[in-house]
């Protein structure tokens, strides 16, 4: 209904109608096939030639429906808009009757899925005027969705929070030190203490917490995003010890192993730069670059 030149692509997934969950009406079809037919019917009522395609994606719900061309000339737009309004209103009427089963109402057209052919319309005060309102309470998405998973926060702000939290864990007492088992070096590498998310938050300033509060997941999401440095388990924050990370169980072909070995060092190692003991892994074993000369 946005415009005559509108085209659409839809990948049906969850079974919903205009006003709630979609109710099955034909036992001879699978629920998925019946729902696809319903979505195609909506496109047809809205005046589209509806095409069906199957996507190459790893999902059980991969049938898409496409509307590229109209079934009517532009001059008939007002008439089709009236038809759409009646279709929506009739499905609302059907939904109300289906919910109230005590009256024993048997709505034939509601059951066979051709609700647009129902002769009865809603009272005049309940009927929408064509072209004025799509549906009562309908709120489309904003054109630009705000990213709120901490990914859009300034890099300087994120780096500052990461450094503050890491120093908080390293300076907590008592510290945990582990022997450096890599090579001949017998020095110890400090992993610091683990603290709860609440304890970490209590040590951050109000401005930082206020900024994180507007993000989904807040502090926990930011720390999980920085998985090179932190590990968040059961609500507690730990500094990640890369010596304990298990190597991938999947065996890659020789060509892919060679390619990844040449290309994986695209970021600097945080521990090499900031940790008082440096990185717990030698340069050849660390997946991150120990210095700019190792960056690829």
From TrEMBL:
Keywords, comma-separated and alphabetical: Cytoplasm, Metal-binding, Methyltransferase, S-adenosyl-L-methionine, Transferase, tRNA processing, Zinc, Zinc-finger
Cellular component, GO annotation: cytoplasm
PROSITE patterns: ZF_C3H1
Subcellular location: Cytoplasm
Residue ranges covered by zinc fingers (C3H1-type): 263-293
Every C3H1-type domain range: 263-293
EC numbers on record: 2.1.1.211
Highest taxon above the source species: Eukaryota
Similarity field: Belongs to the TRM44 family.
Function comment: Adenosyl-L-methionine (AdoMet)-dependent tRNA (uracil-O(2)-)-methyltransferase.
Protein's UniProt name: tRNA (uracil-O(2)-)-methyltransferase
Organism encoding this protein: Grallaria varia
Gene (name only): Trmt44
